[in-house]
Amino acid sequence: MTEAEVMTKTLPDILTPNLDFVIIGINPGLMAAYIGRWFPGPGNHFWKCLFLSGITEVQLNHMHDQTLPEKYGIGFTNMVERTTPGSKDLSNKELRQGGKVLVEKLQKYKPLIAVFNGKCIYEMFSREIFGFKPKKLEFGVQPSKVPDTETVCYLMPSSSARCAQFPRAQDKVHFYIKLMELRDQLKGVVKNKEVEEIKYSFDLGLAKEDAKRLAIKEEQYDPGYEEAFGGAYSEAGLGPEAGPVPGAGPEQSNGHCSLSSGEMEGSSAEATPTAAEGRVPGGSWMTQSFADEIPDISGSSNSTRPQLGAETA
């Protein structure tokens, strides 16, 4: 199948009323549209983070996406329906219209929490729906709810392995844990003062405590993740050399802001780390505890983690 043929395909929403979470992407990538599943790339951390955080009790993958609404209260949608090789191929008109359509979906299905998978997605949404781009955008609960709903907006790092600030699955687990705690708080299951609607910030100490308290399962070595770390999708039989989806990337949604200048001026660009960045030789970190592997992002000069570039999502 040629790239042009793949671009005629779409990725259907998975939505039912009153879900706990709706995971929101920008638009379908080539691989997701070709397979017809959400987050299919081996370098995407979404399914791994669901498991490591305890949201799911077993390790799932993209073939389980249709089971999530009934079993876990999780659905999926995109701002824009059209499949493209990258988000840079979307026009301002498509993004404006996509933001309005997204609001209509959220108003119709009334999820508890709208989860934006990456900063750029929420920046686009905020600009089109609320009329401004946030000056200081932090992960977690956002100050504004979806218009005319009680749906809370929650921002998490992009699940892509190309997210330079959080390049590994275990770097992102804290935000999935906090999402789960927010869900429970909103549903009245627990009262947790750490999760607030207006003010939310990443706390490295809390992240380590979460890791120890929940005894996060050890992350298993995934060769597909290592192969995809540089941004090239290389699952057997589905790479460019096999001819089905030329140019396909590792993630289902173009969560990195690669929109052309003039279309999304001021948007943050998603850095693509090289294969050498963020790795420990021989994959030795896989045998270490989760708590020890949470990066120090406080800006301390004593951090041993290499700087991977500008903050992106």
TrEMBL record:
Residue ranges with Low complexity bias: 235-251, 258-271
Source species, domain of life: Eukaryota
Molecular function GO labels: DNA binding; G/T mismatch-specific thymine-DNA glycosylase activity; SUMO binding; uracil DNA N-glycosylase activity
A GO-annotated cellular component: nucleoplasm
UniProt-annotated location(s): Nucleus
Enzyme class label: hydrolase
Pfam families: UDG
Swiss-Prot/TrEMBL catalytic activity: Hydrolyzes mismatched double-stranded DNA and polynucleotides, releasing free thymine
Similarity annotation: Belongs to the uracil-DNA glycosylase (UDG) superfamily. TDG/mug family.
Name of the protein in its database record: G/T mismatch-specific thymine DNA glycosylase
Taxonomic lineage: Eukaryota, Metazoa, Chordata, Craniata, Vertebrata
